Amino acid sequence: MQIDYNYAFFDEGSKREIRRATLKAIAIPGYQVPFASREMPIGRGWGTGGLQLTLSLVGKDDVVKVIDQGSDESVNAVNIKKLIEKTTGISTTDETSEATIIQSRHRIPEVPLKDGQIMVLQVPLPEPLRFYEPSEFETKKLHAEKEYSGAWLMLFEQIMKYGNLATDADHPVMVDDRYVMAPSPIPRFDNSKMNYSEALILLGAGREKKIYAVPPYTKVVSLAFDDYPFEVESFEDNHCKQCGAAGVFMDEIYDDETETTYFQCNDTSYCVARLNHQTV
Amino acid sequence: MGYVAVKGGTRAIEESIKRLKFERVKKGTVLDVHKIETGMRGLIDQVMSESSLFSEILAAIAIKQAEGNPEEAVFLLRAYRSTLSRKHYSRTISSEDMLTERRISASFKDIPGGQILGATTDYTHRLLDFGLMMESEEEALQWLEGFEEENGQQENVTDLAKLPKVLDYLRKEGLMPECSDDDREPDDVTKKSLEFPSTRSQRLQILTRGQTGALTSLAYAVIRGYGALHPTVGELRVGSLPVCIDNPFNQYNDEDDSYYIGEIKATETEMLIPVTVEKERGKKEIKFEIGYGICLGQNETKAIAMGILDHALQTGNKEYPTGDEEFVLYHIDSVESTGFISHLKMPHYVTFQSKLDSVRKTKKQEAESKEESSLCK
Amino acid sequence: MSDYETPIMSVKNLSKHFGEGCSNCRDVNENHLIRNFCPDCGTVYACRNVSFDLYPGEVLGIVGESGSGKSTLMRSLYFDQDVTSGEAYLRSYEMGSKNVFEESSQKKRYIRNHLMGKVYQNPMLGLRMGFSSIGNIAEKLIAAGIRHVGEMESKGRELLEYVNIPVYRMKEAPRNFSGGMQQRVQIAKALSNNPPILLLDEVTTGLDLSVQASVLDLIKELQRELNVSIVIVSHDLAVIRMMADRTMVMLDGKVVEHGLTDQVLEDPQDRYTQQLVHSLL
Fold first, then answer.
1. Per residue in B156-183, pLDDT tens?
2. Domain span holding position B219
3. In chain C, which residue's Cα lies nearest the Cα of A162?
4. Percent of chain A as helix, strand, coil, to the nearest 5
5. CB C189 within 8 A of CB A268
6. For residue B111, is pLDDT > 60?
7. Would the pTM of this model clear 0.90, i.e. be above it?
8. Is residue C122 part of a domain?
9. Are residues B67 and B106 in the same domain?
10. Could you tell me the CATH number of the domain that includes residue A120?
11. Looking at CA atoms only, how far is residue B62 from chain A in angstroms?
12. Which residue from A102, B260, C5, C71 puts its CA 20 to 30 A from B36's CA?
C-alpha cells in the first residue's frame, strides 16, 4: 500500500478553508478567527498553527525560511523545514531578505521585513486575557465589548508586586486601536517590529485553533502606563562576540573554560551574514 | 559551547531518526502488519476510536510505526486524516440496524431479544496464561474448526440485525419520558472549531474522539463524588453498523437511492441516570435521564464514560469541573494534550532570556531602593 | 433646587421571571400562583412590576424576607442578569432618555464602570480574590480610563485607608482577609470611580454584630461625605431603620408598601409589614 501526499500535505479543500480564515483575520486586525485546525505530522504545540498557515499559502515560486529561537538550524526549525521541502519540493533559505514566507517561533528576524513578505508566527496561547479569565466564552465577550481592564490590571499587578513591568516575552499589544492581542512569545524587543510593519504578519495557534493577523502598515502599540512606559530587554553595552553587532537581541552564553559570560546574536543568519560581509 | 542545542540540527535529527529505527528492529525481527491487525484488536480499536478514523489496516501500520505506543499511533492517524478530503457525509445511521455481537443491560434482566454476553473479558479470571508462550497457529486452527462445528449446531432464534432498543421498551412501559427528535444538521468539529456554549453534536464528537484514559478518569470522578451521579447501563451493544451515502446526483436523497459503502464496528451505550424532578406543589419524583455514548470499535469503558460525561455536560452543573464544558472538552483530546505537554521539551531560550532580563531589572530596583533607604537612616 | 427633585434613577415595571411560564400563569393570573411560584410549570415570578424612583443623595431601603425578590432586583439593576421586561432611566446617562435595559452590552458595561457601584453580599462576586486589594480598586479605575499607576496607587491607598484597611496590607489579596475586611475592600472598590449610584446587597449579612456596626457606620459616613445615592437591600429591619431615608417593602416579588422609613416602621399599613415590624419588637 503506497499512498502519495498532496502538494503541501493538505488536500486543496482544507487549504482553502484555512486561507478563508486568514483573509478574515487580515480584514479584522488583531481579532482571533476560530478555524478548524488540522492535525499535523508534527506535535500539537510544536508549531502546527504556523505550519498550517505556511502550507496553505506556499506556492511553487515561494522561498521559505524557518527559524526557532532565532536559529535556522535549531532542531525544530529543521524539522518543520524538512516537512515543507518534502511535501512541496520548494527551496528554503536562511537569508531573511530572500524569503517570501518566514515561519518563526519566538523571534522576528533582525533584518527589517519588506513589503511582499509574509511573517508567520507560531502561537502557543493566543488569548491575552486567559490568565485573567479562564473561560473562552467570557473572554470572547470581553473582546467584543473592547473591555480590556483585565489586560492592564495584570500589568498593574506586576508593578505592585515587582516594582516594574515584569512581563518577559508575549507582552500584550493593542492592534489598530481595537483588539488587544498576544504577539506570541517574542521578546519585548521584537514588539516594535510589528508596528507599521511593511510585511504581513500572520499568527497561527494550532492547538487553540485560532488565526489572527497584523496587516501591513498597521498600528501596534505595546500596553503600558503613562508613568511606566514599555521597555525592551536591555543588553547594555554588550556586543556580539562573533560579529560585533550591538542593539540586537542577544543570547547570553557562559563559557566554562574561561568562566566568563559573553553575548552573541540570537538571530544566527543575521550574525553569519555580518561575518561573511566582514571577511570579504 | 552554548550553541550546541540549536546548531547542527539537521545532522542531529537524521541520526536520531536512525536511532529510532534501530530501536524498532534491533532484535532482528519485524512485526507483520497483518498479525497486528488480527491479533491486537484491543489496541486497534482504541487507536481507531481516538483517531476517529475507521480502518483496521491503517491502525495496524500506525501501531507498528509507533512501536505499539497508542498516543503516537493516534497522532499518526490523525495527521493522515488531515490529508483526506471529505467527499460525503453518511446518511443517518440508526443503531437498531446494528448487527449485534454483544448486548447487555444492567437495568433489566428480561429485555426483549435477551441479553447476549458475546465476547468479553468481564468474566475471565485475570490469570496470566503462560500457555500463550507456546501457542502455535496449527493449534489455533484446530480449535477454530471445533468451535465452528459447535456453533453451527446451535439454532439461532433471534434476528441479531433487528434487536429492539431497551430504552424504547421502557418508553412503551411508561417508565421513561418520550423525547422528541432533534433533526438539526449536526456540526462537524473537524470543519469548524468549537465555540461555546457548545451544541450537543459538538460535545458528542469531541467525547467520542477523546483519549480513552482521560474520559475514563473524568467519568470516574463524576460517579465517585464530583458530580454525584449514580448511573446504570440501560443498554450496551457492540456490533457492526451499515454506512450508506446519498447518491450525489440525486437531490432528493431517497433512502432507496443511497449506496451502501461498508460497515463499521461500534460500541453504543445508553446510560440511565436517575434525577429528582420537582413536580407541582413541591412534590418530587424520580425521573430517568439518558447519557449517550458511542465509539468506534469495541471500547466499552470508553463508551460508558462518554455516556456519563454526556449527561454531566448536558446538565452543566458548574460546581464540578466535570460539568464545565470548557474544562472537559478542551482537555481530553489525545493529540492536543500530549502535543502541548511534549512541547515543553522544545528549547525556550529566547523567552528565558527575556525573563532573565525582567528578573534582573526587579533585583536592581530592589537593591537601589534598599540603598536609598539605608542612606536616609 | 429642582436638581434634587428629579430622580437620579427611575425604575418602571421591572419584571423578572425564571421559567417559560404557561397558559395558567403567563397572564399573571395572580390567584393561580402560590406566592410567586406557578405550580403547573414551575415558573418563578421573582420580580413583578417593581417601580420606584431614587433621588440624589438619598438612601432607599428595600426590605423583605429571603425569596422576596430584593436581590433579583439588585442583580437586574447592575445588569448581572437580564430583565424579562421593564424600564430603567439614569439621569446621568443620555439625560435619562434611554431605557438602559435595552442598551447594548457594551453600553451596559460603560454604565457599570462609570455610573454605578455595587457591593455584593458575597465578596467572591465583587472582588477578584487572587488579585491584590489595590489591584481590585485599580481594576475599576482602569475600566474608567485611567492609565497612570501613580495616580491609581494614591487613589487606592486613600480609599483603603478610608475604609480602614492598613496600608501595609494593601498589596495583599482579599482572599487572606476576614469577612468584614473583604466587605470594606468591596466598598472601596465600588466607590473608586465616584459613582453617583451605589447598590448595596445585604452587605452586613453574615458579619459579626460589632463588625456589622462598623461597616454600616462607614457607609453612612461615606454617604454624607460623597453625597452618593444608595439603594440598600436587607432582610434586617434594624439595618434599614439605621440607614434608609425611604423604605420599600417587598413580598413575593411585589412591592407591598413604600414610604418614609419612620412612617413605614411606626405606622405600617400592609398586613405583611405589620407582621414584620412586630416581629422586630
1. 667 888 888 888 887 887 777 777 888 8
2. 95-117+158-338
3. C171
4. 30, 20, 50
5. no
6. yes
7. no
8. no
9. no
10. 3.40.50.11310
11. 13
12. B260
